[in-house]
Write a structure and sequence with these properties.
This protein is α+β, with helices and mostly antiparallel strands. It is built from 15 helices and 13 strands. The chain has helices at 3-33, 35-44, 47-50, 55-71, 77-80, 91-102, 137-143, 176-186, 193-202, 205-208, 288-300, 315-325, 344-365, 372-379, 383-394, and strands at 106-117, 120-125, 131-135, 150-157, 162-171, 220-221, 224-225, 228-234, 247-252, 255-260, 271-275, 280-285, 311-313. Strand 4 (150-157) and strand 5 (162-171) form a beta hairpin. Helix 8 packs parallel to helix 12 (315-325) and helix 13 packs across helix 15.
Length: 402
């Protein structure tokens, strides 16, 4: 590809976008179809989130919402092309609008697969698997502050590649499985990727407000990312004699807990339950390594389970989802049955991990060096682990406050 020629097309398209959409069509849609009020009504549902953000950022979201209403599939542009007000535009501007009308704009959750040239990124839609070339200097700016795991952008096609419009959301600790979790918590009727794509198309606002958790860092413990891994099976009870060697067993009513020795405590919490009333087998672990070791030992004991969890969720997405949807989410109702049996050391370690992150954030947001001695005293973590967490979080300072 001739990236220089494509870049020239992108720059020309950006000029047209500013002249035709930013300076005219957004306001026209607000007058004609009250799209500004529609955007405000949708965002009002998440006022507890948006009121904590820069008002300018919220206005950018409104503009992005209106642009999507205009240029999405079967959007308002189909009727605007015939309105007399657009006759004031010149031939080049009208040709640009017809081009945009012919190729609907879309919101994508995507990952970067390659950076073939300056400001160009090969992207892959995590829901459809579609690959596309994106030109985005804004993405380059964000990446200069640290790597991102996932992106959420409204994109438009210029005839040669795609370009972003409005806010660019790069997430520091969200992954594909996190988006599935959030979508189904937002609407439990969603069953697959196609459902989620249509859900975003119908109303992107619930996904736009995910920016509130975009800068939360990956939570790690000695280089081991913390994740909620879980899987359920309908099956007969496991043979207890095959499990004595590797598991500690506790019983609470109809539920038996099998905790993997040396892996059942912090940070892995690798264990499984069997509910004799529901005939349900539930596996869980707080790290990928812990889940892999759990399934390995279970298979060795004659229990046919997959090494792949049904649910794989970051703590940052769990807390973000609870904040946005204003509800407490219980991933494992069995945990409370054995809560008192957990060691005080395990509980304290998990609390300290969460506290460590919260204590570091204010320092980094203020551009200051965290007080290592204070963190050592308050959390109980060793200096090496604290420095590793700081180094990772330093890359994810909130760009919206800069």
């Amino acid at each position: 590809m001739d990236y220089q020629h494509t870049r020239e097309i992108c720059l020309q398209t950006s000029r047209l976008t500013h002249a035709v959409i930013d300076s005219f069509l957004i306001y026209y849609a607000a007058r004609q179809d009250k799209t500004d009020r529609e955007a405000e009504r949708q965002l009002e549902k998440y006022r507890h989130i948006t009121r904590q953000q820069d008002p300018a950022w919220v206005n950018f979201m409104k503009t992005q919402y209106i642009a999507h209403r205009i240029f999405k599939k079967n959007g308002l542009i189909s009727k605007y092309l015939h309105h007399s007000a657009l006759k004031e535009l010149d031939a080049g501007e009208m040709a640009y609008l017809r081009q945009q009308a012919a190729k609907p704009w879309r919101f994508y959750f995507s990952e970067i697969t390659r950076n073939p040239d300056e400001d160009f990124y090969e992207m892959e839609d995590i829901l459809s698997g579609e690959a596309f070339l994106l030109y985005s200097p804004g993405t380059t700016d964000i990446l200069s502050q640290g790597n991102k795991t996932l992106w959420f952008n409204l994109v438009a096609f210029n005839g040669a590649c795609w370009q972003t419009f409005g806010t660019i959301n790069g997430y520091s600790s969200f992954y594909t499985d996190d988006i599935f979790f959030y979508a189904t918590e937002t609407d439990p009727a969603l069953e697959n990727e196609t459902d989620i794509i249509q859900h975003i198309e119908n109303n992107p606002v619930p996904y736009m407000v995910l920016f509130s958790g975009s800068e939360l860092p990956v939570i790690v413990n000695k280089n081991e990312p913390i994740r909620f891994n879980q899987a359920d099976y309908d099956t007969r009870p496991p043979a207890a004699e095959n499990l004595k060697k590797d598991f500690r067993v506790q019983v609470a009513g109809s539920v038996t807990q099998y905790s993997l020795k040396r892996w059942g405590g912090f940070p892995h919490f690798a264990q499984f339950y069997y509910d004799s009333q529901k005939k349900l087998l539930r596996l869980k672990a707080m790290t990928d390594k812990g889940f892999a070791k759990l399934t390995e030992k279970m298979k060795a004991a004659g229990i046919p389970v997959s090494p792949e969890p049904d649910l794989s969720l970051t703590p940052t997405m769990l807390s973000t989802t609870e904040s946005i949807l204003k509800k407490k989410i219980v991933l494992d109702e069995y945990e409370s049955l054995f809560g008192e049996e957990k060691s005080a050391a395990d509980k304290e370690a998990m609390d300290n991990l969460n506290e460590l992150v919260q204590l570091i954030v204010p320092y980094l947001n203020a551009g200051k060096e965290p007080d290592i001695s204070m963190l050592l005293k308050k959390t109980g973590y060793d200096a090496l682990t604290i420095k590793e967490v700081i180094a990772q979080m330093r890359q994810t300072i909130n760009r919206m406050q800069q």
